[in-house]
Amino acid sequence: MIPKYFKCGDPEGKCTLCVTKEIVKRDPSWTCPSKNARCESFQKEVGLVEGLSNGKPGLFYGILAAAALLILSLVIMSGTDSCPGIIQKHEASLSSISSSASALKAQKSSKPTPSLSAGTLSKLEATTKDYSNRANHAISNNSDVEVAQLKTLHPGLIAKIDKASQTTIAVGANTGSNVAEGKRLLTELRTLEEEVNLSAEQANQACGDHSEEFDTLLDSISSEMRTVRGIIRPKKQQAPNAAFKDALTSIKKQLTVTKSALDAYQPAPTTIVTQPQRLPFTAANATFRINAPQELSQTLVRPLLESWSGSSAVISKIDGSIYLKAGENNILISVSPAQADLTFSAESNQKPLSRSNAEVIALDALTLLVHPDSSKDLYSLQRDSLQKLICPKGDTFILSKAASFGLSNTSEAQGTSEELTLNSRNNVALGVYHREANVRSKRLKVKASPVAAALKPSPFTIATEDYAFTWRIIAHTPTSASSKALDFVKFITSEKGQIIVDRSGYVDLRLKPMKTKVAPEILAALGEALGVDSIQSAARLSTNLRFNTGDAKLDIKALADLERLPRYVASNYADHKVVILGFTDSSGGPNVNVPLSKKRSYSVASELRTSGVDSHSSGLGSSLPVASNDTEAGKAKNRRAEVWVVKP
Question: Where is this chain compositionally biased, Polar residues type (predicted)?
């Protein structure tokens, strides 16, 4: 038995043998000196000569050659030729290895080559037949559930057929033991080749007339190596034959026919008996009637009413009206109830109103949405007027709001505003701010005029109404308002009510600061108002106090904000000064507009001083417009007073 040797090839170098490069003789009783559990997997077999010389075959061959020369010299001196005996010994070793190789080859050849279609085709045919029978049974028995289940099985069956048509098989496959035996024989052949080469070199020096026999022997060894390599060569693959593929195509067609029958199945019509909806009271028995558009009644008025009354509402399945019973109060919210005690509206036009019968309760805005990865960032009312704007099909609320802002180039499509932009990078969709919590689409900035700043809809730009497409939510009461209506409006404008407004997605009326980079013109005006040369800090509050055309009378929202300001400033900016900066539209020239803006801001500051607020004022005329002065709505936005809290 030829001894076997190996060396360690641990890639991490954890084994001592890997570091010392020591070659070890393979022995069943041998154990790794480093106790490496994975030692065996890193063992690399080496040739006999390298093993005997412990990795120094040159030295081994030198010693062996010297010994051989000595022996041959003695042989020559004695007159005896030992080379034929050495050759016969090598031939015997080769014969033994060849016998083992022949046995291995015979073992491989005896294994039958599997048929690609054996079992596979018949199994698929049986499965398809069963599927068709089940489908026919389900359809004839009007079994909606089974039809639905069978539809879900179809993709899996098609996938099995596709997989079978692409499958290849191994011809003359090898087992793991065959491969291991073949590798062992190759190692023995390499060792024998080394021994023969060494013997040939020694014989050449000693005898000189046996080179042809040694060459023949080496050729035989090389031939045997090729034979063994052929035995352990990786498997050949065979593709399915044409007949097998044709059979699979036929099965696939049958499945398609069955699926078409399942798709064409129409469930038998069922009669659904519904019980009449039980409402807490009839519309005729309502004691508190509220009028609100469907959009407002569902998303804003209902949650406010439930919080105010402490009761839950019931929505009519017939017309969407909202019924709420709170104690003895029967509260009805409808699109157009007769003799409404309270009416809510979403108004884009800033027409003059009186706080005696109207109150702003929230703000909202129209938004322009694009795909989140779109390069478009700005919508200009002048430059982009031809841009087609998409809105959800049948959304009359968005269409009416778009028309009120002069956005007439619109079209409708299926899907929400967000879906319309996510499905196409080219769409610019119309949306509504209160609907867009966690919206994935990108909101565009809007530039109202060539001189106005481009603004994106946000709680601050909507609260100040600087954003071009902002509107107010207003509660209207009749001349003789009921106590319930007045109490409800008072609740809505309270801190608790405004929290619900915010949670509902709308912009509430609570004052908030915006600390940002202040324009030089504003800094100069603030310094002028306070009579100082430098300012430590300045923040603008989230309101614009707006005026009616041609005078210094504030509108209803501004009057309400003036009531909120003293309490807010005292609680949050007691060590600051309040500066009111007035602005006008462009109806007059600078000689008219600057004095008018100062007059308006002075009147506001004077009113605040009566409430104990340290207030100052200045005016910038028609500079820094937030909207176009070409329309009455734009002029109304530009007639404003900004509120700043300043620390000199």
Answer: 611-631
Q: Which amino acid is at 69?
A: L
Average pLDDT by stretches of 10, the chain with 648 residues: 70 72 75 73 70 63 59 51 79 88 77 56 86 88 84 86 69 65 87 84 71 84 87 64 80 88 79 70 92 93 95 87 91 83 88 90 98 96 90 95 92 95 94 93 95 94 96 95 95 97 97 91 95 94 82 85 96 96 90 92 94 95 91 87 96
Distances (CA, A) of 574 to 123, 135, 264, 470, 614: 86, 79, 75, 31, 9
Which token pair is 380? 């200009």
CA distance 192 to 158: 56
- Cβ neighbours of residue 427 closer than 8 Å, sequence gap 6 or more: 370, 371, 390, 420, 421
Rounded-to-integer distance, Cα 642 and Cα 544, Å: 5
**C-alpha–C-alpha distance, residues 167 and 116, integer Å:** 8
Q: Give CA–CA dist 347/156, Å, rounded.
A: 56
Other CB atoms within a 10 A radius of the CB of residue 179 amount to 15
Q: Which residues pair with 314 in a beta bridge?
A: 323
**165 to each of 140, 170, 242, 421, how far by Cα in Å?**
33, 15, 10, 41
At position 532, the amino acid (one-letter code) is V
| DSSP reduced 3-state for 620 | coil
- Alpha-carbon Rg for the chain, nearest whole angstrom, is 47
3-state secondary structure labels for all residues of 65-128? HHHHHHHHHHHHHHCCCCHHHHHHHHHHHHHHHHHHHHHHHHHHHCCCCCCCCCCHHHHHHHHH
For residues 463 and 504, give the distance between their C-alpha atoms in angstroms, rounded to a whole number: 15
Q: Enumerate long-range contacts of 162-168, CB under 8 Å, 24 or more apart.
A: 164/120, 164/124, 164/240, 164/248, 165/240, 165/245, 165/248, 167/116, 167/120, 167/240, 168/237, 168/238, 168/239, 168/240
pLDDT at position 634 is 86
Tell me which residue has tokens 């065996």: 40
Element (H, E) at 470: strand 470-476
Q: Which residues pair with 617 in a beta bridge?
A: 580
Backbone torsions φ then ψ of 19, nearest 5 degrees = -75, -45
At residue 360's C-alpha, the angle toward residues 358 and 365, to 5°, is 135
Strand partners of residue 390: 411, 429
| pTM score, whole prediction | 0.59
String of b and e for 116-131 (b: at least 16 CB within 10 Å)?
bbeebbeebeebbeeb
